[in-house]
Write the structure tokens for this entry.
Amino acid sequence: MDQFLQQLVNGLTLGSLYALIAVGYTVVYGIVQLINFAHGEVFMIGAFGALSTYLLFFDGQTGVWILPIMIIGAMIAAVGTAVLMERVAYRPLRNAPRLAPLITAIGISVFLQELVRVFYDRIPFADFPSAKQRIPFPQLDVVSGTAVQIGDVTVQRSAIFTIGALVVCAILLWYFINRTRLGRGMLAVSQDPDTARLMGINVDRIIVVAFALGAVLAAIAGVSQGLQNNNIDFKMGFIAGLKAFTAAVLGGIGNIQGAVVGGLVLGLVESMATQYVPGQFGGGTWKDVWAFVILILVLVFRPQGLLGARVVDRA
Amino acid sequence: MSFPTLPDTFVAKHAAKGWPVGLAGVALVIIGSFMSWSFDRQILGDLSVYGYPGGLQILAIIAALLALALLLMVKGPLYSVMGHWLDAALGLRALSVWLLIYMVGILVAITTESSGLVNIDPGGWVSFVGALLLFAGSRVIPLRELRDLSETKVPGWLEIAGIAVVMAGILFGAAYALAREDAWSFVLFLVFAGGVIAAMFRTGTMTWFSHVATRQKKVLTLAAFAVAFFFPFTQNGSDANMSIATSVLIFAATAMGLNIVVGLAGLLDLGYIAFLGSGAYVAASLSQSAFATIGWKPPFLVVMLVGGLVAATLGLIIGSPTLRVSGDYLAIVTLGFGEIFRFSMFNLDGNNGPNLTNGPNGIPGIPELEIGNFNFGDPHTVLGIELGRFSNYYFVLLLLLGFIILVFSRLNDSRIGRGWIAIREDEKAAEAMGVNVFGLKILAFAVGAFLAGLAGTLKAHQDGAVSPDQYIFLESAFLLAAIVLGGMGTIAGVLIGATLLKLLPEKMRFFSEYRLLLFGLTLVLMMRFRPEGLVASRRRKLEFHEEDEELALAIESELVEEAK
């Protein structure tokens, strides 16, 4: 039972991380029907943004009050990247055949990874470490340190931060989508872009907002990933992005609640598989395989996802 | 290269000066090339001897002579022969731009390789001024209306001779480029080649050549194959370039297999490297390697077949979801399969599952291929020229590539190929017309995978080892990029794309730090500015430029003409 509870906590932590990234995929897909393959890189750049903020202004300090500023730094980096990428690479391709944006996305993904790898330690006026190895992520007072024991279950402090961040973000997201003008504009565009345009909604702006919204959440995910793993590297976005995409599909792509539910379910399945798949195919080494098996099974047998989404027929 | 042209009035005023200025430029470039370009003997080969031009100087002279020929076509003895057909003025403009870039490159190279502009000898400056004059002169030489070059009627033997000249040029150019040791010389040679090709496009020679190519298809194919066959003989037994050439061939063969899936059937496969990997792993496990995990040691031809069949079976499995998913989703499914393949190869090490692949260490020590008494590891001497280990593999791989191209082109022209294209264009309409959509999609995956599996079995022996980290997602992306850069669904395009993608990083090692950065950037720029690839099939071109009415008409008339 303790083991089950432990895996439950692990799964929820992992799932919260996936959910935060998955929202970015789903929001963008819901509005422009584009799989933004490079979203994992936005997440990575968010983490590096937070690290840079720390190294520039607070190097060596450990007060927890630094965390919000780091998150803001992460958001600036991530949102900047996402908006620029939409403007420069995706917008000109909006009416191109399906293949073009997908290949562009792969290109952006490789480009951003390499940009960080090669140039992170060459940024002028800053003394950053080289990103060719893993870089230690700053450890702050309250959110990292000795784990909390609840009965026999160990809960990392960073896990509490991650889950808490998801809860707060989910509430704010719900408010933003349903109660603000921009949010309702997004809903309208995702249902019918042409009619929305006729109703006076600036569709281009809504698309930028969608990219920015995803980037904000990815930035928070980047910070919590850094806190959990104690280090970050330029490759962290690829697998995380794929998993998050799986989560988005699992929940029903285009459906924002779905992304959150899908992320949590995927996280739980992964950690339960680590514990309960018997024999040699269990354990941590196969958990990524199980995640991809789920991705394929969902895409094949229930492409609309657990909660359902817009009908998928993309050729 | 299209530069903004000068205003018409300016051109009209100075038109008469263009020709003499250009001629003076040509003369200066040649004179300068016979002088010394640099004090330092170590830079760019030896360019420091008076009266005896070095390699890069000879290139400059060749370019100048080409420019001279074009000038004489504008006004002079060659005008009556070629002047009506070739757009000499436009070609001259393109050539002079590239020649100027070339000379600037030379000056920059000398300056950066030694310390400062001091190291440039008068000859360098003379040639540079010559290039500048030629550039200026060509700007004001007026353009003319021309007759359509495709209407020329020349005897068949002349066309074939043209093909032979171009092919010989390619063979010589490739051997020359590969022999450049330092990166600057290599880049400068590429600039020179770019200039010649640009001039060929601008003068209309390329249009003529493409017409000839369609008329003399068989001759061209044979000539291309012959050029590829003779390439190892130009290397004097050196294995350094042959190892690059073999890796280009493996890459090209795999890309050609993927071209069936992506280019013909329009199914985006982001996990294609797994098929190459499964072929390689089959060959490794069935080889005599001490780390091989399977006891059965069949002859290599059987291994090849098994490798191909295993890959094809995987292809069937990966293809089966196409019944239900398509487009972006299919791309993700294949990506997922590719990652599962890599993780499985990584994990099947005996601790996590049965020991099949030795896990992260892979299977090293795969022995050289041996067919009959012919050991591929030993050098052989043919016609007095020693052919090393890589040359042996090169010939087998060339055969394989030839086979794959044959399969590709035969399928493309068959009922199956037309079915694939129909599916790619509009799946629902194809189904309504009675095309067996699911069967053909599955077939595309199986055939593509089978071919990649064959290539994989050879790759395992050529590399001597297999490990999971050779088969990462990035490699699939590279394969896809080769197709996209070259031109989807075309043979020549994909071959060019594959060659460029493998050759450039090998030759520009000093650039290896930025290799992937440039790769990503190229993909983005390519999709933005030329999504149909370097060599575009007509259908693709239309697909990406739907609103271009003129293009549609042009292509339609071309098709009509071809049908006649």
